[in-house]
Amino acid sequence: MTAIVATPETVIEPQVQPAGSPRPLVSFVLPAYNEEARLPDGLDRVIAFLAAQDFESEIVVADDGSRDRTPDIVRERTAATPKNVTLRLVHHEVNRGKGAAIRTGMLVATGQYVFFMDADLATPPEESLKLLEHLRDGVPVASGSRIQPDGSDMRASQPAQRRMVGRAFTMMRKAMRVLPDIDDTQCPMKGFEHDAAKAIFQRQQLSGWIFDAEVLHIARALGYRIVEVPVQWSHVEGSRLKVRPQQVWEVVRDLIRLRTSKIAR
Ligand SMILES: Nc1nc2c(ncn2[C@@H]2O[C@H](COP(=O)(O)OP(=O)(O)O)[C@@H](O)[C@H]2O)c(=O)[nH]1
Ligand SMILES: [Mg+2]
Asked: Which atom of ligand 1 is nearest to the CA of 235?
């Protein structure tokens, strides 16, 4: 398949659907790094979910320099998606991190409402409908939250080490006054009105996992209203994330950057 080179490092493969097909109401961006084990089921589930909706949709898989069959898994499905679902593949030549993969996907997505979610579907695609309701009501940014209305926290199913890292991050973030009123910046499902998505992700820079907080920080700096929406979430085995002790300094450095950065309007 010939590929359109978007930048020296990012390749956007051509869409299978003919040009001129209706603009999707919803885009789902799925970052994927060496996901050959988890992606086939996840992608099939997302395709089936979107096929059952009464709107046009688009899935953008942002392959982050995988060295396994991840891009092939997407290509194998592009020609056979249901009529109202378009499947697209963008990929980085080298691994650049989850934040960078999502940024690439969000910037090519064409939907009126654009979501991102993890390829392991830790937050199931069905949950996007809860966010979509708010977006359709005119809220530009809907951020999933793993804290439920009754106060229970879905992160309880995480391994102890990840839970500790998450708690430490939230404490540090709040102490540094980065989005102190938001309890769960790191939930891996967020939805945006199209123009808000473009404005936010054009300014987004962090490539590691703090990018979630960065995205909300930029949204706020640009004056977008953010609504937190409780969603289901469960820990899924096979995480690509390596927690390393030196990350503490990277986290502090990135939080300082967020705290002091000037976001150009
Ligand atoms: N960890 C990691 N995930 C990436 C990267 N690039 C894209 N991703 C995707 O980001 C999502 C979350 O990854 P996962 O390893 O499950 O993270 P966790 O659930 O936070 O432990 C998955 O869809 C990954 O494929 C990367 O460089 N590192
Ligand atoms: Mg995961």
From this structure: 19
